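Dissemination and training. As part of the outreach component of the grant, students in the summer workshop were shown how a complex can be specified as a set of sequence lines and then modelled as a single object. The example used during the hands-on session is reproduced here so that future cohorts can follow it. Participants entered these lines:
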Amino acid sequence: MSATSPTDALSYYGRPIIKEPVWQSEIPLYFFTGGLAGASDLLALGAQLSGNARLRTSALAAATAGVGISPYFLIKDLGRPLRFLNMLRVFKVTSPMSVGTWIFSAESTATGIAAACRLFDVLPRIRATAQVLAGLIGPAQATYTGALIAQSVVPAWHEARRELPVVFASSAAASAGGAAAILTPAEHAGPARRLGIIGGVAELAASKLMERRLGKLVGSVYHEGPAGRYSRVATSSTLAGTALMALAGRRRTGAVGAGLLLLTGSLCERFAVYHAGKQSAANPHHTSIPQKERGGRAVTQPSSRTGNGSSPSAPTR
Amino acid sequence: MKLGDGVETYGAEAQPRLGFFTDTSVCIGCKACEVACKEWNLVPEDGLAWTGNSYDNTGELSANTWRHVAFIEQQAPDPLKQGNQDFRWLMESDVCKHCTHAGCLDVCPTGAIFRTEFGTVVIQDDVCNGCGYCVTACPFGVITKRELGGDGGMHKCTLCYDRLQDGMEPACAKACPTDSIQFGPLDELIEHARERCGDLVEAGVPEARLYLADENDGIGGAGAFFLLLDEPEVYGLPPQPVVPTKDLATIWGAAAVAAGALAVGVAAAFLGSSR
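and obtained this result:
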């Protein structure tokens, strides 16, 4: 930037107006593992209700792995990790992170109990109850993270507030279907394959819808830098995984390949969204231009000569 | 001006809402506010680099810069001065806005950020666990994480909460030699600011405008508002900031719809055959 700032400049020396999120890569990793766990718990409940014990075991294993690794990511990203329990001091509906902390606590506890009872083959009634609870909380676990980042001033996240939870839910479904298809023999894995296909198609559609909603200016982040690269890998992996699952999912190698592609696509979609947020926060125009177009009453001129003063014109010279 | 969200919980202990009026038309860019703030609040040094951006070497508000003086050099006549010249300085001491509807306070998941009895917004350092959610919820980019010394917590202006409790004015306002930073009950400040802005317009400075002085704006008005001489974005300020919580119902609604869709999707996967 030059040392002078002309009057028509839309920024202060090109500096961001809002701050870039301080979250590191642990956060998109958690979006993935938490989503995988939530959707897998729901898949396990479906398998339980339909009497597919083999699929239930696989889905429960994926969910247990997901909730098992997630606290590591969540706590490691804190600036003061030893104080992670401070999250449990309050419950605030205005903070999706607060609500989500309680959702994750309930989800991981229920999943852990169900898995432990299954592993040691004890307490069948408690196990069944825990399985049902985990399955019922699963959808909240898979979607609250979308609400969490939408509840921010980051343009690429807040402007996509209607689509982000759907993107995350479908991404979670694709990953859960893919993981269970890998872990389950083909003759028991029908619902897992179908969930992978449904999730994959929905993820592709929802992420395109989100990009369109963001418009040309803010939506451009999905075509540039890290967000653009992750987005391309996510789209191609999910597309290939969905197609492969539909065409060759009944064969062992096909199911494993398709499952891995769907998992990769889901993971990369979370990283694409994460980087999109960082990139749009770093660009002052993504904040200022949509705000100016929307208008408002932040700037006022009390003088009677200037009318209501809601949008004073720039000084002419 | 509206009271800050949550101040009603103080009941009889609530005090008149206090705030800052920063009149940039008399700022001389001395940075006494930055220095006084650092000294009083023990805010650490944050790099001694030259940015090359006029006289601004702190760059932005952050965990380690709670008052930041912006310097803008413009090739334009200065209506505040007599005679022929084609250059003007814009200088503005920026600070946390202590919003009526504060995004940082809304999203803080530990309750570390709270509304004081004076209507200001403060982070309790001994509660903050450094999750960083407040950073993404501030429309003004005020809060960041303090990495120095392994701190890891989030920090910002407290409007000198400790001084207010002892009936003193904040350090920056006390140190300001031109009264560009004015401190007092918010109602009085706004009334005075409207007069000042009107006087400036009448005196031939048509670009004078108030920023964040209207309680009907996107953050319900601010506890720290400004008189500016150009568009907000020229100073690095958002032109029409909105608290993200304003869309809370839409966001939770979208999450509920997505959760329902996920349940339907899983149910559909079991249709036909369970194998």
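Strands of chain B lie at 18-23, 67-74, 88-95, 113-115, 121-123, 144-145, 154-155, 181-185, 209-211, 224-228. Students were then asked to discuss how this feature might be tested experimentally.
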